Automatic annotation (TrEMBL):
<keyword id="KW-0378">Hydrolase</keyword>
<keyword id="KW-0347">Helicase</keyword>
<feature type="compositionally biased region" description="Basic residues">
    <location>
        <begin position="399"/>
        <end position="409"/>
    </location>
</feature>
<dbReference type="InterPro" id="IPR027417">
    <property type="entry name" value="P-loop_NTPase"/>
</dbReference>
<feature type="domain" description="Helicase C-terminal">
    <location>
        <begin position="237"/>
        <end position="385"/>
    </location>
</feature>
<dbReference type="InterPro" id="IPR014014">
    <property type="entry name" value="RNA_helicase_DEAD_Q_motif"/>
</dbReference>
<dbReference type="InterPro" id="IPR050079">
    <property type="entry name" value="DEAD_box_RNA_helicase"/>
</dbReference>
<feature type="compositionally biased region" description="Basic residues">
    <location>
        <begin position="379"/>
        <end position="392"/>
    </location>
</feature>
<feature type="region of interest" description="Disordered">
    <location>
        <begin position="379"/>
        <end position="409"/>
    </location>
</feature>
<dbReference type="InterPro" id="IPR014001">
    <property type="entry name" value="Helicase_ATP-bd"/>
</dbReference>
<dbReference type="InterPro" id="IPR011545">
    <property type="entry name" value="DEAD/DEAH_box_helicase_dom"/>
</dbReference>
<keyword id="KW-0067">ATP-binding</keyword>
<dbReference type="GO" id="GO:0016787">
    <property type="term" value="F:hydrolase activity"/>
</dbReference>
<comment type="function">
    <text>DEAD-box RNA helicase involved in the assembly of the 50S ribosomal subunit at low temperature. Exhibits RNA-stimulated ATP hydrolysis and RNA unwinding activity.</text>
</comment>
<feature type="domain" description="DEAD-box RNA helicase Q">
    <location>
        <begin position="3"/>
        <end position="31"/>
    </location>
</feature>
<comment type="subunit">
    <text>Interacts with the 50S ribosomal subunit.</text>
</comment>
<protein>
    <recommendedName>
        <fullName>ATP-dependent RNA helicase SrmB</fullName>
        <ecNumber>3.6.4.13</ecNumber>
    </recommendedName>
</protein>
Length: 409
């Protein structure tokens, strides 16, 4: 296994860019992916956001384009598909930085951008195009984008694309890119939700890469929870955490209504925050994100939908003001902190009805998530105990099945 970027036999211009970006050594997914991708293998990688997956595909793609330079001007040779436009913009940004010392051109095609802007982009020669599936398909149908020159097809956050209903579109795009040489697929999870069948159709004998953050890596996230007696108590706890403990926080809420309510409450308390929610005009969303990124605001309120795939660096605290709907989403949320070797804190503020989800999360992550208290804000209620649902006995199940089959006859 390689330990340094220097061992990868990369072009000096690429190595310089990697160094300029401050990447000292490859992350696990990079160390595993880059050599295999450069040996012309298809890649099937399980790598959640925060593992360095973007560079894991951008670095070999750039190296490939440098190894096999184009002979004449023409359409893009590497296509990167992402589920959301924010992710597309981030991926493009990182790829541009990595390609900064080369002549390679990187463009994005996403929704929320006027056709004219894209028309200019499409008229010029591009090497790498980062696109969202829906918008790209529109251009292909209108014969404004040509996939025949695509040599590498890269799918980022494939599970999210499936979740968002892009499966059929991606299949069609894959057919459009049938002349390609290599396919690289990255997904936070590879199990369930149809990911397996989907990947089988797209990839040829892929190298399987598993870069789930190791338990050791995950341990860098310290998790705990506070119990709240009421909505007011919950708000008081949050205000305390935001003003007394946290440096840079993302606060997760389950709906935009809940987000709007909290926004006003924080506003009244003169706690400055920015926010993102689903179906927000792109410029406003970008604005909110960049204010947070630049550090002019240190609190970002977000719904899960809005936060999908967005890379928000240097987050010290992830706060679950509303518990997520599943343990998997919990892991996604807390993955926003402790990026690339940093330490992070994940705090959940739970009411009685959230306790079963809190317990489920602890079982799922196989970690003990302890309760903590803040002086003067201790809950007065006892921690509720929920009994597990009674399981249907095996014998009963058999009976039911038997009954059904006899009925059919
Ligand atoms: P990603 O998983 O691609 O969203 O990357 C998460 C963050 O890690 C991004 O902010 C990257 O800039 C950063 N990153 C990627 N590769 C490295 C590396 N080898 N060393 C340090 N940071 C990295």
């Amino acid at each position: 296994m390689i330990r340094t970027f220097a061992e990868l036999d990369l072009d000096p211009s690429l190595l310089e860019a990697i160094e300029a970006m401050g990447y000292e050594r490859p992350t696990e997914v990079q160390a595993q992916t880059i050599p295999q991708a450069l040996e012309a293998r298809d890649i099937l990688a399980s790598a959640p956001t925060g593992t360095g997956k973007t560079a894991a595909f951008a670095i070999p793609a750039i190296q490939y384009l440098l190894d096999f330079p184009r002979k004449k001007a023409g359409p893009a040779r590497v296509l990167i598909l992402t589920p959301t436009r924010e992710l597309a913009m981030q991926v493009a940004e990182q790829t541009k930085q990595l390609a900064a010392n080369t002549h390679l051109k990187v463009a994005t095609i996403t929704g929320g951008v006027t056709y004219d802007t894209h028309a200019d982009t499409l008229a010029q020669t591009q090497d790498i195009v980062v696109a969202t599936p829906g918008r790209l398909m529109e251009y292909i149908e209108a014969e404004r984008f040509d996939c025949r020159a695509i040599e590498w097809l890269i799918l980022d956050e494939a599970d999210r694309m499936l979740d968002m209903g892009f499966g059929p579109t991606v299949d069609r795009l894959s057919a459009e890119c049938r002349w390609r040489k290599q396919t690289l697929l990255f997904s936070a999870t590879l199990e369930g939700r149809g990911v397996e069948g989907f990947t089988a159709d797209l990839l040829k004998n892929p190298a399987q890469i598993d870069a789930e953050p190791s338990l050791r890596e995950r341990k860098k996230i310290t998790q705990w929870y506070h119990r709240a007696d009421s909505a007011d108590h919950k708000l008081a706890l949050l205000k305390h955490i935001l003003t007394e403990q946290a440096q840079r926080s993302i606060v997760f809420l389950k709906t935009r209504e809940r987000l709007a309510e909290l926004r006003q409450q924080l506003d009244s308390a003169q706690i400055t925050c920015s926010w993102i929610q689903g179906e927000m005009p792109q410029d406003r969303r970008n604005n909110a994100i960049s204010r947070f990124k630049e550090g002019s605001v240190n609190i970002l309120l977000a719904t899960d939908v809005a936060a999908r795939g967005i890379d928000l660096p240097d987050v010290s605290h992830v706060i679950n003001y509303d518990m997520p709907r599943s343990a998997d989403v919990y892991l996604h949320r807390i993955g926003r902190t402790a990026r690339a070797g940093k330490k992070g804190i994940a705090i959940s503020i739970v009411e009685a009805h959230d306790q079963p989800m809190m317990d489920r999360v602890a079982r799922y992550t196989k970690e003990l998530i302890k309760e903590r208290f803040i002086d003067g804000m201790r809950p007065t209620h006892k921690k509720p105990v929920f009994k597990k649902k009674k399981k249907v006995k095996k014998d009963d199940k058999k009976k039911v099945v038997k009954k059904k089959t006899t009925k059919k006859k």
